[in-house]
Amino acid sequence: MRAVSARALRAWTAVAALALAFGAHAHHSFIGRFDLNTVSEIQGEVTDLAWRNPHAYLSVRTVAADGTATDWSIETSSLTVLRRMGIEQDTIKVGDRIRLAGNPSVGGKKEMYARNVLLPDGRELLLNVGLKPRWTQNAVGDESLLMAQHGDSSAPELGIFRVWSHTRAIARLFPEATDPTFDIQSYPMTPAARAALAKFDRARDNPIANCTPKGMPTIMEAPYPFEFQRAAGGDVLLKIEEYDLERRIDMHSSAPPAGAAPAPLGVSVGRWDGKTLLVTTTKISWPWFSQLGIPQSSDVVIVERFTPSDDGSRLDYEMTVTDPVNFTRPVVLSTHWFWLPSVRLMPYHCEAD
User: Fold this and answer.
1) Full domain range(s) for residue 45
2) Taking the chain, what is the end-to-end CA distance rounded to the nearest angstrom?
3) pTM of the model
4) Is 185 left (phi over 0), alpha (psi -120 to 50) or beta?
5) Which of 27, 122, 215, 226 could lock 264 by a disulfide, CB 3.0 to 4.6 Å apart?
6) Are 75 and 116 within one domain?
7) Judging by DSSP bridges, how do beta strands 124-126 and 139-140 pair with one another?
């Protein structure tokens, strides 16, 4: 049985499009930090620039009519998304005077999530998918490049062993991560889980604050690419660009080895069911089902199915989460990814406060 409605599989809304870069400066949660319903403008000089994952960052100094200077901290999409849209590092330079539109801080801090930037030469950068030019039609930032194949897009002989990417055309795994209208109460939670959720403060209790890597299952929500590799001895490695994490899948055991220690990513054992990789993960120490506050117990069992299409261009994914402490029935979520041969994993830099 599914715990969520069909909207979990629908196309992204405009707000959901921002979630391609979901994460945050010092990796605070995006949700709750920025007002996604408001777009503000500032104009000033770029004083610093950090071109890296999980987000590109700018420092912009504005000067009021009375001469008062204000320093703004600006973040925008992931390096992966920017590069795939044709926006390279040297597009914005320190010293440039730019005009910027974005989502302001909810708490009144001099922070902003950038959507559009007008450069000194008159070009306008569209810094995420689903955006339209604001000031000029001379725009840079082609979201169609997110789906650019750049070569053979099939290669079925590779099976799952390649880099898989998110695209704008699909919904994310957890609907609450992208859809502000989704009712998180629709999950089949036990009374204890609902009580814990009611006490959760998204600003105070953010589980990924200060660069804390996500555990299972929330890491599979990551909007960054991941890659399956063959490991020595026949095991399977799942390398995830977000946090530079690695999941090792034991293909020789039917259960975790005796004495295996719990870990945020758990202990995974797998087997092949035809072309489908079937993975069962237990011993998970990560205490969250959703980073928005639904708890997870140490009794949780997660079963995943990774199934490549016949031509190898698409990977279908289904996750079943069984946690009798927090859910009255198993929760089933699904999504899919695409193979874009030009995409490679890039280093992930996250700096804590």
Assistant:
1) 32-145
2) 41
3) 0.72
4) alpha
5) 215
6) yes
7) parallel
